[in-house]
Structures are given as structure tokens and as C-alpha cells.
Amino acid sequence: MIEFQSIWLQTSCYRFTVDLLNLKELRRFGSLHSALSSVLGVFPVSCIHLGAETCRIKGCSIPKELGFEVIASPVEAQVLNPYCELGEEGLRQILTDVIEEVKQSLNQDIDGAEILHSLLNASWLQSLLKVYECLEKFLRDTPAPLLDCASGLSFQLLIDIRARPGCSEEARELYRLLRQPHLQALLSAHDTVAQRDFEPVLPPMPDDLPDDEEATRIVCLVKNKQPLGATIKRNEITGEISIARVIHGGLADRSGLLHAGDRIIEVNGFPVDGMEPEQVIQVVQARSQGTIMFKVVPITERPIHNQTMLYVRALVDYTPQQDPTIPCADAGMSFRKGDVLEIVDQTDALWWQAKKLPSNTACAGLIPSTNLLKRKQREFWWSQPYQPQTCTQTLSTVEEEDMMAIDEKCVEADEEAFESEELREEDDFSSNSEGIYLAGFRCSMRLCRRRSHSTTQPSCQAFCTSGCYSALNSPYEEVVRYQRHPQDTHRLIALLGPSGVGVNELRRRLIEMNPNLFQGAVPHTTRAPKGYEESGREYFFTSREIFSNMVYNNRFLQYGEYKGNQYGTSISSVKDVLNSGKICVVDIEPNAIQAVRTHELKAYIIYVKPPPLAHLLETRQDSYITTNYYVNRPFKSEDFQEMEEAARKMESQFWQFFDHVIVNDELQDSCVQLLSAVKKAQDGPQWVPASWIRPSTTES
Ligand SMILES: Nc1ncnc2c1ncn2[C@@H]1O[C@H](COP(=O)(O)OP(=O)(O)OP(=O)(O)O)[C@@H](O)[C@H]1O
After folding, report:
1. 565 lines ligand 1 (CB under 6 A)
2. Which of 104, 416, 559, 580 is the most exposed place for a label (fewest CB within 10 A)?
3. Residue ranges of the Guanylate kinase-like domain (predicted)?
4. Distance between CA atoms of 561 and 452, rounded to whole angstroms?
5. pLDDT category, 603, cuts 50, 70, 90?
6. CA distance linking residue 460 with residue 559, whole number of Å
7. What is the rounded distance in angstroms from the CA atom of residue 341 to the CA atom of residue 478?
8. Ligand 1 neighbourhood includes 673 CB (under 6 angstroms)
């Protein structure tokens, strides 16, 4: 189907609009601007605007092959106001032109182009320009109000219409319109402007002010549904009430009249000295509408804080309503693991102010500072029953024990059929599909882990040290916005999910889709090569000594033992793929998360989540699972339950590290989602740990 679009051409004194046929065709000729300029070169085209109107240009024959044509021929060149070259919509047209230009820069990796584009595209900016243009127009026309009490007139009209029996449909519609609160508010605003009634009416100054009275300030805030956005505290010795903090972007903050440290003397005429803070709040809340009047003694020296913008990823969950220590639960902000927070105020050592991104609210919320959260975690940790006191226990080992438990159950269930369907040695980890060597398949440790990651394995400790990222260490991770430069190596794509969910299937399909772009990492093994295998293609065949040495030197992302042989994915084989210009796709176990989240690999972690049980039963009817002992046996309902249980555990411990989540329901859909996630990972801007971009900062 042909899409119709139109274009305005803005010259210094004429404006044309051209209907385009199939805009995509036109794009072949580069930018819209240059294509049209070349066609309509006779006119100095200064501005092009995509709009919805039709247009006609006479006598301009545009070659058909350009993909667009002029619909009709009568001349409709409109002479614009010579005093205002840009026309009434001039600014908006310039903006549209600039947006179009900036859009071209989006793919050219120009720093800040994306931010600029979203800023220029913001609907508020468009509205603001409309307002500006209206104001400009009226400034020239200098309009004067016809009457200064439009509200009164409207009110009178309402009464009259109501009083008339059997009035017309038009009158009833007018009645409905005039009763709209927005229209009434508009008329009221009109009257305020017409009457030039701009100043707030302040209460008169008392005559009998003593000479030594402290300088006070009367602050009137108009109350709406928003909270005041300030917390108060009481000095236990003097009984004085003062403002403890002003919430960034809240009502008090936006007024610019109340500040932390200001002493409150009166609220709505009530002296508050000696009151409990709760009583003061009651006085404030007693008046649900209208103005609240504060009499305050302003703080003499307001501390100057140079706030630096800080963005963090939350590595823990927080709910203010469950925190008895928060100064004001209503001012608190809850967050979940993985949320990105913009810290807007760190002046208080214990309570920061933050916004959750993406944020459409101006008002920040209170969150515990890093130090406070660590303290809370320590207290919580000490209050728990005894556990071995290494942080490796908190995540890595516990997680592995859980996984072990799942597998033990699996073995019990399968024991009967064990002999007949035993997993053969040949069914190990690599595969060759239509000449494409998918190195790394089944080498993902997903089989190995069941046997090899026992707690007795000595070298496992090496992993735990690098993987010691317990939330106890750092509840927040500083992040920065990062966009990969086209010349940089690709980000590693790491897939992760509970056993059987389809991680390998998705990885295999992705690589097969475009083996010139996607590749797995060639694993190392200590087993002997088979006749057809080549070192460096299916595996790097290596001796036990070298393998142990690599383990000792932390050279593996993950490794394990299977049928007496060692298998491992080395960091260098991942880097080899990345350095060759391809996108390396690996599947990992949770204990390798920290090993891939590095400045060098910049892993983008995609979590493959099982769909609900009913969908699993439906979609996996013809699928087969490979367990420790069986190759390709049909799924049983226990497999699905174990998968769900494993998924729950994985999510509760590692959700904060997932950059993207794919629910593997329909395989085809999941593949499409995976492809677009990978594209986003390589080309789109993302929040990444600050330590990746500023390697001097210690990685947490
Ligand atoms: N969305 C899906 N719909 C139907 N079958 C699927 C889907 N995703 C995967 N499968 C099938 O499920 C089976 C298990 O998938 P796969 O081997 O990829 O799991 P895995 O997550 O790698 O688990 P493990 O590491 O334990 O092998 C395979 O037969 C695969 O074809």
C-alpha cells in the first residue's frame, strides 16, 4: 500500500506543501532536504516540514522515479507576512527542520544527539512554542480585555439558561460547556489578568512589633492535592520546630521560600513552639484547601552544597513503609532491585533524595544513603541465625547448594529408566549444523554444573572471590549512560536462565541466523580430541596441568567437570571472538555473572524466563529435555515445576544484573525478541556500571 505524506516547503516568502507518494522511496535519495532541494532547486528551500495537509505546486514537474509526485496543479503559493519572515508558525517550522537534521545525526554517533533529539521532540517544548507564538502575536496586536469579569458573566448565563424552560439544544450545550471546571478556571485566570490582580494579598503587618523581634518571613502556599514536600523536626531541648528537609521538586521546594533549617513559629496563625511534630502536621492538614500560612524565622546561613549528579542501580529492594527509621514514610520512595535511580540530593549523610528513572514526576523521594543501607544490612545480618561468615556464602555457595538439590531430585525421579537411556559420551557439547560449527554448545557448564560445582572443588573459591558482590558490600552500583562507539568491539551477549528453559535453543538459533555476525566462544577441555575434531574449532584441547593453571589464574568465565574431563569457557576465547569484530554469544550460570560484568567484556545479560506453567505445558509438548542421564526425553511436569522454582531463585538473587528479560513462550517470538535485544545492546544507549567507563573507580 502506498503511504501518503505531505511536506511543506518554506522559502523566504512562499510556503508550499507537497504530497509525497511513498516516503520510503524518497529516502533512497538521502535526506529529504537534499532530495527536495534538487527537485525544486529553483526555490531557496529553507525549511521542510512534514505535516498532514495536502498541497499543490504548479508547473513543477518532478521525475516519477523520485518516488513522489505533485498531486494537482493549481498554484497555491501563499505570500507570507513580509514583516515576519518566518510566518506565525515560523519557530515551530525551524524546530521541525532542526529536529529532522538532528535525526540524521542519530546514526552518526554524535555525542548528545539522542538527548538533543528527545529534548527538541518533547511535547512540552512544542506546546511552549505554541504559547510563545500566541504571545508574540498578541504582543503585536496588543489586545485588551472586553470585560474584566468573564466568570461573572458566565455564571449569570448559567443561571439564565437554567431558568428558561425547554431551551434549545445549543443552549444546553453551552450550559454544559460553561460548567466545565477547565473553562471556569480559564475564565477565572482571564479575569485575574484583566483586573491586573497579580500580587498575593498578604496579611497586614501587626502594629505592635517589638524592636528585638527576629526577622520573620510569612510564606503562603496554595494547597493542592500534593503533599507539602517538607519534613519537620523538634528540638528536644528548646521545643522549637524547624524544617528538617525540603523534598527536591516538591511544593515547598518549588516555592523557593522554605528551606531546611528555617524555624517555624506559626502555622495558619497557631504558634507551634513546644508542639509535637505530629500536632504541627495536623494543623497543616486541618485545612484541606486554600492557602497555608507559615511564619518562619529563616535560617541565617544556608549551607551551599555542590550537588553532583549521581545515577545508581539499586542492588536491593527497599520499601519505606516497612522501614521504621525513615523520618517520614510518605516522603519515602520504594525501589526494586535493578531500578536506576537519579540521586538528586546527598546533603544528608543518612537520607538521600532520589527519582526513579524513567521519571515523569518532578518530586523526589527519600531513600537511605549507601552507608545507612549498609548499616541496616549489617544489623539485619547479625540478627539472623549463625551462617558461615564469608560473603561468598551469601550468594554463590547457597545458590549452588540449591541447584544441587534440584538435581538430586531429578536423579531420584529418573533412576528407573537410567540404564536404558543413558547419556552417551558422544552427546557432549559441540555441534555442527550445515557446516556451521557452533562451538560452545553444551559446553555451557549447564550439564557440567550438576556434578562439578561441588563445594569440595578447591578451585571454585577463585570464582567466589571475583563473584563476591553481595549486596552487603554495596547496595547501590554507580551507573553511567553508555553508548557503544561503532568502532568499539561489540558487547558480550550472555544468556542465562533455569535449566531447560531454552537458553541453548535461542543461542543456537541466533548464531545460525547470521554466523558471520554471531559466534560462540571456543571452549577448553582436557578430554582427548575425536577423529574429526580440530583444536581451536570445536575445542581447545589442553592438558590437565594447563587447565588447572588457567583456573588458578582466573582465566575462565566458568568451568566444570563432566565424566572425568574438565570443560571451561576462557575469557581469552570470548575476547578472540569480540576482537574479530563479531558478537560473542555465551550462556552462563549465575556464578559467572560477575566475571562477565567487566570493563573489557561489557556483558549485556539477557535472562530467559519460563512462561507460566500452562504455557510451558502447551509449548513444550513436542520438546525434549537433556538431563544428566538422558538425552532428549520428553518434558515431564516435574521438569516444569523445577524450572519454575529455579527461575524464582535466580530472579530473587540476580534480577538486578539482568539487562533484558525474555519470556520464552513461543519460540519464534522469543527469537525475534532476542535479535532486537541484541541490536539494542550494541547500538542503543544503556546504563552500565561507572567502573566500566572510568576503570580507575573500583568495581563493586
Ligand atoms: N519456546 C520454546 N517452545 C518449545 N520448545 C522449546 C522452546 N524453547 C526451547 N525449547 C525446547 O526445549 C528443550 C530444552 O531447551 P534447551 O536445551 O535450549 O534448554 P536450556 O535452557 O539450554 O537447558 P539445559 O542447559 O539444561 O540444556 C529443547 O528441546 C528446545 O528445543
Report:
1. no
2. 416
3. 490-679
4. 5
5. very high
6. 9
7. 9
8. no
- Ligand 1 neighbourhood includes 619 CB (under 6 angstroms): yes
Q: Rank 22-26, 557-561, 655-659 by mean pLDDT and report only the highest.
A: 655-659
Index of the ligand 1 atom closest to the CA of residue 502: 18
- Distance between CA atoms of residues 638 and 644, nearest Å: 10
DSSP assignment string, 102-115: HHHHHTTT-TTHHH
From 372, 378, 335, 374, select the one nearest 357 (Cα to Cα).
335
Atom index in ligand 1 nearest the CA of residue 500 equals 23
Tell how far the Cα of 626 is from the centroid of ligand 1, in angstroms. Answer: 9
Which residue would you say has higher pLDDT here, 306 or 407? 306
C-alpha cell of 542? 589442553
Three-class SS of residue 569? Answer: strand
Could you tell me if the CB of 670 is within 6 A of ligand 1? yes
Cell of 429: 557439547
Residue 379: what pLDDT?
A: 76
In sequence order, what are the beta bridge partners of 10? 15, 47
Rounded to two decimals, the ipTM of the complex is: 0.97
Q: SS3 of 392, please?
A: helix
Q: Which residue is associated with the grid cell 571472538?
A: 577
Task: Tell me if 664 CB under 6 Å of ligand 1.
Answer: yes
670 vs 506: CA distance, rounded Å: 8
Pocket of ligand 1 contains residue 623 by CB under 6 Å: yes
> Which ligand 1 atom sits closest to the C-alpha of 497?
21
Q: Is the pLDDT confidence value at 501 over 90? A: yes
| Beta-sheet strands, E only, within 186-236 | 217-223, 230-234
Q: Report which ligand 1 atom has the smallest distance to the Cα of 666.
A: 1
Q: Is the CB of residue 321 less than 8 Å from the CB of residue 329? A: yes
pTM: 0.63
User: Which residues, in sequence order, are bridge partners of residue 686?
Assistant: 482
3-class secondary-structure state, position 279? helix
Q: How far apart are CA 700 and CA 471, in angstroms?
A: 10
Residue with cell 497586614: 204
Reduced to 3 states, what is the DSSP secondary structure of residue 200? coil
Least confident segment among 69-73, 337-341, 342-346? 69-73
Cell of 559: 568451568
Question: Which residues, 6+ apart, have CB-to-CB distance to 33 below 8 Å?
Answer: 45, 48, 100, 101
Best CA proximity match to 444, nearest among 515, 506, 495: 495
Segment among 16-20, 104-108, 392-396 with least mean pLDDT? 392-396
Query: Smallest Cα–Cα separation from 655: which of 336, 356, 322, 359?
Result: 336
Q: Which of 446, 504, 589, 615 to mutate to test the pocket of ligand 1 (most atoms within 8 A of CB)?
A: 504
**pLDDT tens across 136-172, in order?**
888 887 778 888 899 999 999 999 999 988 889 999 9
For the chain, the average pLDDT equals 75
